[in-house]
Design a protein that fits this description.
Layout lengths: L1 E3 L3 H4 L2 E3 L13 H8 L8 E4 L5 H11 L5 E3 L3 H8 L7 E3 L1 E2 L6 E2 L9 E2 L6 E2 L1 H5 L18 H26 L1
Parallel strand pairs: 1-3, 3-4
Antiparallel strand pairs: 2-5, 6-7, 8-9
The chain binds zinc ion (ZN).
Length: 175
């Protein structure tokens, strides 16, 4: 059984076929999730993966400490897999969230299609950006109900400032 040890918002834009998503808001939730789900893994071989291979190594050490006899983890993480495994043989589906300006990458580490929602920090794909709940810098379909009117007014003001700064930047470049 294969476990995706990343956060739920990362899993939401891509994962391996058949992987189990513990639906965690953060990695600290992992021991609690394991305590509730360990029976499902009785007598099964467990493999884990994450973006770069660090979190799943921690998670597999945790499971070994919990008495699971054999735990595998994907060396070098998803990024190494996407770089090494040709698309035709790949079991990866979707894009892989990364913690830099690229936001997400695909097979061969090609740039992905996601941007970041600056209200909630989640990745938003082309479908999300076309959704009526999406307003740049203010909301995306995932966080539309999470913020108060006061928050949204603050985000709108911040977005206005960004637009002004961009316009000034463009004017500056044109001089
Ligand atoms: Zn959002």
């Amino acid at each position: 059984m294969v476990i995706d040890t990343r956060n739920d918002y990362e899993v939401s834009i891509g994962t391996f076929a058949g992987a189990i998503n513990p639906e965690m808001a953060g990695f600290r939730a992992f021991p609690g999730w394991w305590a509730q789900n360990r029976d499902r893994f009785q007598g099964k071989r467990v493999a884990m993966f994450c973006t770069g291979g660090i979190r799943c190594e921690k998670a597999s050490n945790y499971l070994l400490g919990q008495g699971v006899p054999e735990v595998l983890h994907l060396k070098g993480g998803i990024l190494n897999y996407l770089e090494q495994v040709p698309r035709a043989q790949s079991r990866w589906q979707g894009e892989c969230f990364v913690f830099d300006n690229r936001v997400a990458v695909g097979h061969g580490l090609a740039p992905g299609t996601h941007t970041i929602c600056h209200a909630c920090g989640r990745p938003v794909g082309p479908e999300g950006r076309a959704h009526p709940d999406h307003a740049e810098g203010i909301s995306c379909p995932a966080c539309i109900g999470e913020f108060t009117e006061a928050d949204r007014a603050r985000f709108a003001e911040r977005q206005r400032q960004i637009r002004l700064a961009r316009a000034r930047g463009t004017a500056h470049l044109a001089e």
